[in-house]
């Protein structure tokens, strides 16, 4: 059977964090009643003229810098023409042959510890379209009518186009994670897919291993989460392999990802139309950016992820790997910074709890840190209880889950739940003596040389005390009583 | 490069124009005249000329990022052929 190589390029659309829209003064606030943020410009009334938002340009420059792109001194807006009810002017103002930034790259950390460089073809400014709510059916298929809300119309977007450098669905996912992280650190966008502030289309093709030319590429749309992007690409690659295995040819087309059915469906003859007849937007003069503007943006640039990785390594002696795990999600890194300021002990303790327990919990529950109730003071309070031996590390693990879920204080949970660590020697000695008396056979085996059975007695003691016994004390007492 | 009837029909379709055969023939001819004229310009050597994107040689105007409500949103809604609540309603798309 022929071995195939997968080729993926991603087009990521991100909202830019501005107060007003790209070409008019309407608010960009999310979640407002339909058509409460509209004006003649963003609804395409005759005679209305666009005026460019300076902050949108600054944010695009900032993003370009974070993506290692060159910033073009002169860029040009163009009309992308197509008919759709969410597009009131029947064209989208975008950029075509002269984008604001181009030719950048990002470094992806791979699971094997190496890095992969992924090229950024360009990142250009454009306006968003309105939102459609279909009536009489779940989706557009079978709908009897559609409701149009122009609140999102003309909200500034940056479209980030990657080179076809990605070779697997997993790499595509890692790239998405990285771009999201960059956007959050640069404070360019909240970059959440749930609110539609980050959207992603994928160009996918396969070719026999060793072949130089690319295969026919298929564009996949309608992926609503990072997980969906990964799955959709895997499914599409399998489909293309089957098409080729059956002796047929892959057709260049746009396909829609159907999450429920776990397949991609051809959109031919539906929303697809690639004949956009771009031409320079006559209502806008070229965008000119001088060195002083770029220098100003550079100066205002917040601390980026890589800088934070370096800072963590230098200030706290954290490994590069841990620092990267900690900084991937800016919310987690910000949490760490806040906790580190409050905690008097070794900061590596916070790193361990965050990277293993907290991130593990988030992954299992498919949650973001912001969706839990845990705050930096609460984590630090819990670490303090471990440090002063009020609770054992084992108890703390259970406690942490409760705090993540309910936001209760560790101190209160300990008092209510009787979770206080048993550090009283006399009390613990009594319990251990009882356990030894109850297991004469194991005791005899131990005394006849099977010393590994000590672990058995430790386990029994922890079980009897519901994990509340102080492990060092248990060990110490057992050594004495078993001697 | 000459335009034929099929090209003209394709362009008309993209613009959602429903043209008669007679109209298509007329516009095919007119489009070709426009292209012929552009071809005349191609005889000039423009290697060292920067492309012109706009007839005015200046940079675009910029506005500060301040949100201001438009006072007559109801008026915009009234421009729609059909409205439900504060949403425009369009006939089925597919
Ligand atoms: Zn507006």
TrEMBL record, chain A:
<keyword id="KW-0547">Nucleotide-binding</keyword>
<comment type="function">
    <text>Allows the formation of correctly charged Asn-tRNA(Asn) or Gln-tRNA(Gln) through the transamidation of misacylated Asp-tRNA(Asn) or Glu-tRNA(Gln) in organisms which lack either or both of asparaginyl-tRNA or glutaminyl-tRNA synthetases. The reaction takes place in the presence of glutamine and ATP through an activated phospho-Asp-tRNA(Asn) or phospho-Glu-tRNA(Gln).</text>
</comment>
<dbReference type="InterPro" id="IPR017959">
    <property type="entry name" value="Asn/Gln-tRNA_amidoTrfase_suB/E"/>
</dbReference>
<keyword id="KW-0648">Protein biosynthesis</keyword>
<dbReference type="GO" id="GO:0006412">
    <property type="term" value="P:translation"/>
</dbReference>
<dbReference type="Pfam" id="PF02934">
    <property type="entry name" value="GatB_N"/>
</dbReference>
<comment type="similarity">
    <text>Belongs to the GatB/GatE family. GatB subfamily.</text>
</comment>
<dbReference type="GO" id="GO:0016740">
    <property type="term" value="F:transferase activity"/>
</dbReference>
<feature type="domain" description="Asn/Gln amidotransferase">
    <location>
        <begin position="334"/>
        <end position="482"/>
    </location>
</feature>
<dbReference type="Pfam" id="PF02637">
    <property type="entry name" value="GatB_Yqey"/>
</dbReference>
<dbReference type="InterPro" id="IPR017958">
    <property type="entry name" value="Gln-tRNA_amidoTrfase_suB_CS"/>
</dbReference>
<protein>
    <recommendedName>
        <fullName>Aspartyl/glutamyl-tRNA(Asn/Gln) amidotransferase subunit B</fullName>
        <ecNumber>6.3.5.-</ecNumber>
    </recommendedName>
</protein>
<dbReference type="InterPro" id="IPR006075">
    <property type="entry name" value="Asn/Gln-tRNA_Trfase_suB/E_cat"/>
</dbReference>
<dbReference type="GO" id="GO:0070681">
    <property type="term" value="P:glutaminyl-tRNAGln biosynthesis via transamidation"/>
</dbReference>
<dbReference type="InterPro" id="IPR023168">
    <property type="entry name" value="GatB_Yqey_C_2"/>
</dbReference>
<dbReference type="GO" id="GO:0050567">
    <property type="term" value="F:glutaminyl-tRNA synthase (glutamine-hydrolyzing) activity"/>
</dbReference>
<dbReference type="GO" id="GO:0050566">
    <property type="term" value="F:asparaginyl-tRNA synthase (glutamine-hydrolyzing) activity"/>
</dbReference>
<keyword id="KW-0067">ATP-binding</keyword>
<dbReference type="GO" id="GO:0005524">
    <property type="term" value="F:ATP binding"/>
</dbReference>
<comment type="subunit">
    <text>Heterotrimer of A, B and C subunits.</text>
</comment>
<dbReference type="InterPro" id="IPR018027">
    <property type="entry name" value="Asn/Gln_amidotransferase"/>
</dbReference>
<dbReference type="InterPro" id="IPR042114">
    <property type="entry name" value="GatB_C_1"/>
</dbReference>
TrEMBL record, chain B:
<comment type="similarity">
    <text>Belongs to the GatC family.</text>
</comment>
<dbReference type="GO" id="GO:0050566">
    <property type="term" value="F:asparaginyl-tRNA synthase (glutamine-hydrolyzing) activity"/>
</dbReference>
<keyword id="KW-0067">ATP-binding</keyword>
<dbReference type="GO" id="GO:0050567">
    <property type="term" value="F:glutaminyl-tRNA synthase (glutamine-hydrolyzing) activity"/>
</dbReference>
<dbReference type="InterPro" id="IPR036113">
    <property type="entry name" value="Asp/Glu-ADT_sf_sub_c"/>
</dbReference>
<dbReference type="GO" id="GO:0005524">
    <property type="term" value="F:ATP binding"/>
</dbReference>
<dbReference type="GO" id="GO:0006412">
    <property type="term" value="P:translation"/>
</dbReference>
<keyword id="KW-0436">Ligase</keyword>
<keyword id="KW-0547">Nucleotide-binding</keyword>
<protein>
    <recommendedName>
        <fullName>Aspartyl/glutamyl-tRNA(Asn/Gln) amidotransferase subunit C</fullName>
        <ecNumber>6.3.5.-</ecNumber>
    </recommendedName>
</protein>
<dbReference type="GO" id="GO:0006450">
    <property type="term" value="P:regulation of translational fidelity"/>
</dbReference>
<dbReference type="Pfam" id="PF02686">
    <property type="entry name" value="GatC"/>
</dbReference>
<comment type="subunit">
    <text>Heterotrimer of A, B and C subunits.</text>
</comment>
<dbReference type="InterPro" id="IPR003837">
    <property type="entry name" value="GatC"/>
</dbReference>
<keyword id="KW-0648">Protein biosynthesis</keyword>
<dbReference type="GO" id="GO:0070681">
    <property type="term" value="P:glutaminyl-tRNAGln biosynthesis via transamidation"/>
</dbReference>
<dbReference type="GO" id="GO:0016740">
    <property type="term" value="F:transferase activity"/>
</dbReference>
<comment type="function">
    <text>Allows the formation of correctly charged Asn-tRNA(Asn) or Gln-tRNA(Gln) through the transamidation of misacylated Asp-tRNA(Asn) or Glu-tRNA(Gln) in organisms which lack either or both of asparaginyl-tRNA or glutaminyl-tRNA synthetases. The reaction takes place in the presence of glutamine and ATP through an activated phospho-Asp-tRNA(Asn) or phospho-Glu-tRNA(Gln).</text>
</comment>
